[in-house]
TrEMBL record:
Pathway entry: Protein modification; protein ubiquitination
Name of the protein: BTB domain-containing protein
InterPro entries for this protein: BPM1-6, BTB/POZ_dom, SKP1/BTB/POZ_sf
SUPFAM superfamilies documented for this protein: POZ domain
Pfam families, per database record: BTB
Organism this protein belongs to: Eleusine coracana subsp. coracana
Amino acid sequence: MSTSAAVPAAPLDLQRHLGDLLVAGEGADVTFLVAGETFRAHRCVLAARSPVFKAELYGVLRQSAAAAAAELCIRIHDMEPQVFSALLQFVYTDSSPPVMATEGFELIRSYPALLKEFISKVTAP
């Protein structure tokens, strides 16, 4: 009789894997320009994490095949790069970086409010 050995399951570490994806930038298809710094991200991750991002990145204005295939570049005004970086980390990993203070923003684990603030800046005309 032959017995089959159980194959160990891979560790459930989605947060780390998504964080690694953000850091590596592989497959990124959207670029954010924030105060002279460039941040690359993945539309599908942003859209999965936020209905507002989903509407903005895949909505009516982005429906053409050419627009969907082209890399998107979004300028963010009135936000510090450190704040934006922390926001992306939160979106990808559900974890917050160490508490940090920046001009105009104080991050004390209040990311839902910060996310709302960011989204209002992205969607403002």
